[in-house]
Design goal:
By secondary structure, this protein is an alpha/beta fold. It has helices at residues 30-38, 58-64, 127-136, 152-166, 176-183, 188-197, 237-252, 257-274, 281-285, 288-302, and strands spanning 5-8, 12-18, 21-28, 44-50, 67-74, 80-85, 94-99, 119-122, 145-149, 171-175, 202-206, 212-215, 220-223. Helix 1 packs across helix 7, helix 7 (237-252) packs antiparallel against helix 8 (257-274) and helix 8 (257-274) crosses helix 10. The chain starts with a strand and ends with a helix. It binds adenosine monophosphate.
């Protein structure tokens, strides 16, 4: 049995409105999107919490996809709730309501048998929880990585805590607006350098429908975007990118710059599929064959 990639992040009920339709209290959350994406490559274990209103049976569906949910607690309160809206600028979510609910008092506990896992993805959630999970993991002897994603909500509410965890990780993921906001500078190359100065060996800045940038101390890479014609709901694309990327890195156990480039394309391939349907609709039905097909299309986009 291969080792799990451990993912902590939100498990949510999302109400989403886009110019193409609506979804009311559908299951979402950063750890759900990212674990489904990572599961194309690697066994996954989620750490998180749900409330009494979380649909029974959903965790069993994750289990069927090889996702371990032993680290998900069920508490008496309400599940994390997010209401978001997209206008014609479909790549930018407008957060209308964020209710942390059971996440407010959540004290994560990584099951003992998962603490030796070498691969950790701190997906978007309170940086204090990200740090608690990181602290419970056993020191890695060789290989492996810790990756981290965050969002404007946490940069605005817990900026210093976000910075504290960034100092302890290997791969940082941010979107362009968040990188500008966190480092208080408009130029992304400078923001990328500032992030590298804090410790990570790879910094990836996601630019929504315009691809993603990779900064390492030695190199710079620009991943192309996929020319999607039917974006209906981009919710979770950032998480799919992060999950696909980290799942592939875990599978290959290789965080060399060349492999991170490849992982970025896998992340982009899954994210582009995800945007073609509402909520988890597409992720539930695509297979690794669809992901590989789009990966190869990405390759041909970049050739000249
Ligand atoms: P994204 O990949 O950025 O589109 O992430 C969308 C997911 O992030 C949704 O399913 C939300 O439930 C979740 N989300 C929204 N706000 C937060 C937050 N402050 N912390 C953690 N997760 C969030």
């Amino acid at each position: 049995m291969k080792e799990h990639i451990v993912i902590v992040g939100s498990v949510a009920l999302d109400s989403i409105t886009t110019p193409f339709g609506k979804i009311n209290r559908g299951v979402g959350g950063s750890s759900v999107y990212s674990s489904l994406a990572a599961s194309f490559f690697s066994p996954v274990a989620i750490i998180g919490v749900v409330g009494a209103d979380f649909p029974g049976g959903f965790l069993a569906k994750l289990n069927k996809k090889g996702i371990n949910t032993d680290g998900i607690k069920r508490e008496p309160g309400k599940t994390f709730f997010w209401r978001g809206k997209y206008s014609w600028d479909i790549s930018t979510a407008i957060s209308l309501d964020t209710q942390l609910n059971v996440f407010e008092k959540f004290d994560p506990s990584v099951p003992e048998y998962l603490r030796a896992s070498k691969h950790l993805f701190l997906a978007n959630i309170d940086p204090v929880l990200q740090k608690k999970v990181l602290k419970q993991m056993k020191p890695r002897k060789s290989g492996g990585f810790t990756a981290l994603d965050t969002m404007n909500f946490w940069i605005e509410h817990k900026r210093e805590k976000v910075k504290e965890v960034i100092k302890k990780i290997d791969v940082l993921l941010l979107n362009d607006g968040e990188a500008r906001e966190l480092f208080e500078m408009p130029n992304l190359s400078r923001a990328g350098k500032s992030a590298l100065g804090m410790g990570p060996r790879a910094v990836i800045i996601k630019k929504g429908e315009h691809g993603a940038l990779l900064f390492t101390r030695a190199a710079h890479f620009s991943a192309p975007s996929y020319p999607l014609e039917n974006v209906v709901d981009p919710t979770g694309c950032g998480d799919c990118f992060g999950g696909g990327l980290t799942g592939f890195l875990a599978k290959t156990d290789d965080v060399s710059e060349w492999n991170v480039r490849k992982a970025m394309i896998y992340g982009s391939a899954i994210a582009s599929h995800n945007a073609e349907g509402f909520g988890l609709e597409v992720l539930k039905k695509i297979s690794i064959v669809d992901v590989e097909r789009r990966f190869n299309e990405f390759k041909s986009i970049r050739e000249f």
